[in-house]
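QA checklist item 7 of 12: single-chain prediction sanity check.
[x] sequence parsed
[x] length recorded as 409
[x] structure emitted
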Amino acid sequence: MKPSRRDFLRSSIMLPGSAAFAAQRRAVRSLRVAVVGAGAFGGWTALHLRRAGANVTLLDAWGPGNSRASSGGETRVIRTIYGPTRQYVEMAARSLTLWREWDRAAGEPFYRRTGVLWMTGADDSYVRQSLPFLRDLRLEYEEIEPAAAARRWPQIAFDGVAKVCFEHEAGYLAARHACDAVARELVRIGGVYRQAAVAAVRGDGGHPDVRLGDGTSLQADRFVFACGPWLGRLFPDVIGAHVRPTRQEVFYLGAPAGDDRFVDPRMPVWVDIGERFIYGIPGNLHRGFKVADDTRGPDFDPTDGDRNPSPDLEREMRAFVSRRFPALQDAPLLGAEVCQYENSPDGHFIIDRHPSMPDVWIAGGGSGHGFKMGPALGERLARQVREDASPDPLFALARLGGTQGRRLP
C-alpha cells in the first residue's frame, strides 16, 4: 500500500526508538521513488533518498554526466560568495561539507580546494554583500589590495581591477566523473539505475502515468523530474519557457612547457566581474587553462544542437586572456566545449511539487550555478519528497508568474 504523505509530518515530534519513529522508518522503506535525470540534482536526490531507506530507481536518457547534460564536462567552480542571497551561501556551505564528506568516505575525491580569486571593478557589491554571511558561517576569506594581489600572483595582470577578494574554502569539482560516481554509489547501496528516456507524463489531478520511450510505464509512488533543459518539453504547461536552455562555450588553452604558474596550487580558480562575468579554472585535470564567459548565449537545443565552438567567441576569450594573463597571449587552443545552461527567469532554482500531480516533484533551473549545490539540494529535496514538506518560496513555482528578477551569475 502506498504510504500516506501525512504520516511523515508527524515525524517532527518523534524520537528515535519510539514506536512512531519505527513506523515512519517502515513507511520510508516501502516508498518507491523514480528519479528522472542523473545529473547533479537528480543523482544526489536519488542517493539521499536511498540512504534514508526508500526504494529508488534513477533513470537517464544518455547516462550520468553525459555530454548533452548540463552536469557534463570536466569541472565546475564551487564557491560560497553569492551576492545578497543568504540561502545560497548557506546551501553552498552545506554542499562544501557534503563534498568533503564524500571525499573522505569514498576515496574518490572530486573537490579540489584552490580558493577563488574574485576581481572586480569599483562596483564590488556582488562580493561584498556575501561577506557578512561568510563571517557568520566561519568561511575564511581575505580582502586584498590589487597591488598586493599582483605581487602574490604575478602571472595575473590586475589592470582595471579595483577590488580583490580571495575565498579560501572554494575551488573546483570534477563534474561528469562525480555524476557517474554518485550513480554507482546508489547502485552499490541497493538502488537501481536504468538508461531510459521518458517520452510523456500524463495526469490530471491524480497519480501520473509516466511513459518511457519503449512504450512501457514507469511505476513508482513518487517521481522526481530533474532533467534540466528538457523539463519544458515534459511539462509544457507548468514549466514551458520558464526553463530556457542557452548555448555556452568553454575553451582550454595550453601554457608553455614546464610552466606551472597556471595550475594549482600557484593559480586559484578566478572570477573577473567587469563588463562581463568571466571565470576560469587552473589546469584542471591537466586538460589546459579553462576560460569561459558566463554571459547567457542564444537559445539552444540540448538534444540536437550544434556543439562546434564559434570562432568569434574564441577571439573574444583570447583577447581577454591576453590582457589578464599576458604569458598566455599566444597559447594554443587545446580544446573547446559547447554545453548549455538551463535558466529560470530569475536565476533561482525550481524545486516544487507539480501543481496538479502531487506525487510529482520538479527540480531544475540550475541557471549555470547549480552543479556545486547538488549534495545540499539533493538532501533538501529528498527530505521534502519523503515528508511532503512545503517548498522554499525562493524556489517555488508560484514565484514564476511574470517574475523577471535579477539573474544570478
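[x] summary fact logged: The first helix runs from residue 6 to 9.
[ ] second reviewer sign-off
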